[in-house]
Amino acid sequence: NILIIDFGSQVTQLIARRVREAGVYCEIVPFQLADEAYERLKPKAVILSGSPASVHDDNAPLAPQKVFEADIPVLGICYGQQVTAHQLGGKVEGGHHREFGRARITIHKESPLFEGVWEVGKDYPVWMSHGDRVTELPEGFEVIATSPNAPLAIAVNEKRRYYTTQFHPEVVHTPDGAKLLSNFVHKIAGLKSDWSMAAYREQAIQAIRDQVGPEGRVICALSGGVDSSVAALLINEAIGDRLSCILVDHGLMRMGEAQQVVEMFTEHYNLDLKCIDASDEFIAALEGESDPEIKRKTIGRMFIEVFEREAKALAEQGKDAQFLAQGTLYPDVIESVSFTGGPSVTIKSHHNVGGLPERMNMQLVEPLRELFKDEVRLLGKELGLPDSFIGRHPFPGPGLAIRCPGGISREKLEILRQADAIYLDEIRKAGLYDEIWQAFAVLLPVQTVGVMGDGRTYEFVCALRAVTSVDGMTADFYHYDMNFLGNAATRIINEVRGINRVVYDVTSKPPGTIEWE
Ligand code: XMP
């Protein structure tokens, strides 16, 4: 196994991800807990992460000195390089402005770190981090790769198996980085690929049992999305019927969705799931509201109210939970933590990250906190969730409310639901569903004139959206064949009363966002 000591870089989790991809078990611990974790894990190798800190700061984060006293390989990335140099008697100079960027490094000498990947005398792209700089290497170290701006791109002490990089091998912008990390764990640390999602499942289940204890009860808001579903299934495996799930049907779901979710979880998984039809309350609270942020906040507030009420009802039946389950993923964790401390602008308030935990005063159980979306899908597969479910497009917490710009009514939601169902049906039939990252219909608060049969119509416009993306942070609009769009539009206009015009959204993100509100 491998211990990753986290000094607060935004991308530490990517290191873990690459190590997992190489089939090796690893744990990330914050540097303050590294000593204890080191004793507990007795790792075969240690990786030191990057950091926004400087070794010159007061109380600069350090690695336990024992890491360097044991005879194990160490990989120091960025700040990890500086800390290694600093702790082994080298010198680090501060004061440079921190910046990240693409760079090319030239290889001067062979090393097992890039054996089979990089060749001496050639240069390769990496994602560099300039900040503080090592100016004097500790004894026994030599520089084996450089770039014009990074004289210590890679510095190593092969004899002691210490490898340090000024660049970040863990990010995708260092195209060969994953191979370097794989070399570190396999060739240098000598670890075999024997770790898998099946093993992760067992560990996660054990961790839940440890956290919840033999008597504890957990409550979970199941939305039917992949994240909350996988979290609920894991917890169910860990503690069985001490988990209660609540599905709040806010009336803003897609067609038939609530029933499908209830059927699947109660029939196939025997989950203790209660579906609450709160659509009247939600729609009443949203009626006439057209401000996107107020809509989002209202839905968030209502959701908490309904959930709290149901949690109370469960407590009265003797199912009093001390723990609240959340399907928080790693990207949610980094997005909600500000490392710079500076002001960051709220583009949209995502209602499912935050709010509930603070209000409910419960401990959180977050079994997916270390995982990325595609890893959660693999875990879901491991738990037996059907492919049709795992591969589903993302769906926002506030649901169709944010796909109905302007005021909301039951009638409008119903029109949108029908158009959306037809659109998705056409996408599936054309075999495009998996190629598209997310697709949905939007009902515009605009009526236009049309002609159907011999009569004049005056009905709503429906916009179709489809994007490709990796993580939802950036996106490109999907380039459909026009015939596909024509067919989908014809079906929607013919089959949905209330829509007489269909348009396609060709905005990428940025400058647009994926949702319209
Ligand atoms: P935007 O519109 O911000 O969306 O480009 C990026 C991704 O996030 C989804 N989204 C949400 N997901 N709660 C969620 O769980 C929300 O409040 C929310 N708002 C947007 C959106 O569907 C897209 O996949």
From TrEMBL:
<feature type="active site">
    <location>
        <position position="168"/>
    </location>
</feature>
<dbReference type="GO" id="GO:0003921">
    <property type="term" value="F:GMP synthase activity"/>
</dbReference>
<dbReference type="InterPro" id="IPR022955">
    <property type="entry name" value="GMP_synthase"/>
</dbReference>
<protein>
    <recommendedName>
        <fullName>GMP synthase [glutamine-hydrolyzing]</fullName>
        <ecNumber>6.3.5.2</ecNumber>
    </recommendedName>
</protein>
<dbReference type="Pfam" id="PF00117">
    <property type="entry name" value="GATase"/>
</dbReference>
<dbReference type="Pfam" id="PF03054">
    <property type="entry name" value="tRNA_Me_trans"/>
</dbReference>
<keyword id="KW-0436">Ligase</keyword>
<dbReference type="GO" id="GO:0005524">
    <property type="term" value="F:ATP binding"/>
</dbReference>
<dbReference type="GO" id="GO:0005829">
    <property type="term" value="C:cytosol"/>
</dbReference>
<keyword id="KW-0315">Glutamine amidotransferase</keyword>
<comment type="subunit">
    <text>Homodimer.</text>
</comment>
<keyword id="KW-0547">Nucleotide-binding</keyword>
<feature type="domain" description="GMPS ATP-PPase">
    <location>
        <begin position="195"/>
        <end position="392"/>
    </location>
</feature>
<comment type="pathway">
    <text>Purine metabolism; GMP biosynthesis; GMP from XMP (L-Gln route): step 1/1.</text>
</comment>
<keyword id="KW-0332">GMP biosynthesis</keyword>
<dbReference type="InterPro" id="IPR029062">
    <property type="entry name" value="Class_I_gatase-like"/>
</dbReference>
<dbReference type="InterPro" id="IPR014729">
    <property type="entry name" value="Rossmann-like_a/b/a_fold"/>
</dbReference>
<dbReference type="InterPro" id="IPR017926">
    <property type="entry name" value="GATASE"/>
</dbReference>
<feature type="binding site">
    <location>
        <begin position="223"/>
        <end position="229"/>
    </location>
    <ligand>
        <name>ATP</name>
    </ligand>
</feature>
<dbReference type="InterPro" id="IPR025777">
    <property type="entry name" value="GMPS_ATP_PPase_dom"/>
</dbReference>
<dbReference type="InterPro" id="IPR004739">
    <property type="entry name" value="GMP_synth_GATase"/>
</dbReference>
<keyword id="KW-0067">ATP-binding</keyword>
<comment type="function">
    <text>Catalyzes the synthesis of GMP from XMP.</text>
</comment>
<feature type="active site">
    <location>
        <position position="170"/>
    </location>
</feature>
<feature type="active site" description="Nucleophile">
    <location>
        <position position="78"/>
    </location>
</feature>
<keyword id="KW-0658">Purine biosynthesis</keyword>
<dbReference type="InterPro" id="IPR001674">
    <property type="entry name" value="GMP_synth_C"/>
</dbReference>
<dbReference type="Pfam" id="PF00958">
    <property type="entry name" value="GMP_synt_C"/>
</dbReference>
